[in-house]
Write a structure and sequence with these properties.
Length: 175
């Protein structure tokens, strides 16, 4: 069917960080999903990871990176949490319940770059790391306006230069 890459929004392998994000999976389910996809012979498996999440320590981030690397994905996207308007995180930030720190962001970013490049990943774009030969053609297509279809909750597609996004709620997406 032309599927070339599967990207899993794992975000973290630390239980309390997943809870902070409102994620329903646990670290073992995430790891099993990666193994299933690799065993199925998919050409490229990507893991999305997130840092600077409220309550996430540098040690949490380091162990998440180590766990991701141990699963031998072809690609890892590692990006920091951004506070988007109309989200619960943004409202908490406005109320002073959460904070942003450029120093923390930079420290977590540098840790990811060090660990991932030491593990043989090539750093490209701002938040992307690929094993040799596994840079994301989706990312290139995204920036050049090529058609692609994203499947799953919150997935984005572009067809005939029209961009659309699936509903972000898993239960509603399944319906």
């Amino acid at each position: 069917l032309g599927v070339k890459r599967v990207s899993l929004g794992i975000q973290s392998f630390t239980p309390h960080v997943l809870k902070s994000l409102g994620r329903e999976h646990d670290p073992e389910q995430a790891a099993e999903a990666v193994r299933i996809l690799k065993d199925a012979g998919l050409r490229a498996v990507n893991i999305d990871l997130m840092f600077s999440i409220p309550g996430q320590s540098r040690e949490d981030w380091s162990s998440t990176l180590d766990r991701a690397i141990s699963l031998k994905p072809d690609h890892i996207s590692a990006y920091n949490l951004t506070y988007e308007e109309d989200t619960a995180f943004f409202e908490s930030l406005k109320r002073g319940e959460m904070d942003e720190s450029e120093d923390r962001d930079a420290s977590f970013f540098e840790l990811a770059k060090q660990k991932l490049t030491d593990a043989g990943f090539e750093s490209y774009e701002t938040s992307n790391y690929a094993q040799p030969g596994h840079r994301s053609s989706h990312n290139h297509g995204y920036w050049s306006g090529e058609d692609y279809v994203g499947l799953g909750p919150s997935a984005v597609s572009t067809v005939n230069r029209n961009r659309s996004r699936n509903v972000p709620d898993t239960a509603r997406y399944v319906e």
